[in-house]
Design brief:
Strand order of the largest sheet: 1-2-6-7-8-5
Structural class: alpha+beta
Protein name: Thioesterase
Distance between the termini: 18 Å
GO molecular function, one term: 1,4-dihydroxy-2-naphthoyl-CoA thioesterase activity
Number of domains: 1
Number of strands: 8
Domain Thioesterase: 44-120
Transmembrane segments: 58-81
Order of helices and strands: HEEEEHEEEE
Oligomer: single chain
Keywords: Hydrolase, Membrane, Transmembrane, Transmembrane helix
């Protein structure tokens, strides 16, 4: 398993526009925190769908890299999301991911997204990643 610090450095270098933080990283799991600013809001004063989808995608990617190491070319092949309630515009988005399958060529994960401090999820996502062959 890779360290949280190594993974944070990887994201800073390869995804300089990402502004989430890794709250926790475990065996086939990751929790991310996205501060919410006016740039993340849509009309009506709620966090936009693209922000929630990006957090779900990043959480799955983080859990995969945290488990396998820096497999940078792992790519999303499918992402489904259900928006369940309005996120709070004045609270960070928390994405909690657990991998359901971590195979040689595919990984499947699910993510619950929350407004920080709320127990009820604002969205639920599932996604599949293609993992490139490991170099020997």
């Amino acid at each position: 398993m890779i360290s949280k610090e190594t993974l944070e450095a990887f994201f800073r270098e390869n995804f300089p526009n990402s502004d989430f933080t890794i709250e926790s990283l475990g065996d086939k799991a990751a929790t991310l925190r996205q501060p919410v600013s006016d740039n993340h809001l849509r009309p009506g004063g709620t966090v936009s769908g693209p922000v929630l989808m990006a957090m779900a995608d990043a959480a799955i990617y983080t859990a995969i890299l945290g488990s396998l190491g820096l497999v940078a070319m792992a790519v999303t092949t499918n992402l489904n999301i259900n928006f369940m309630r309005k996120p709070q515009a004045n609270r960070a988005v928390i994405a909690e991911c657990r991998l359901l399958k971590l195979g040689r060529s595919l990984a499947v994960g699910e993510v619950f997204l929350y407004s920080e401090g709320d127990d009820e999820p604002v969205a639920h996502a599932s996604g599949t990643y293609s993992i490139p062959p490991m170099e020997e």
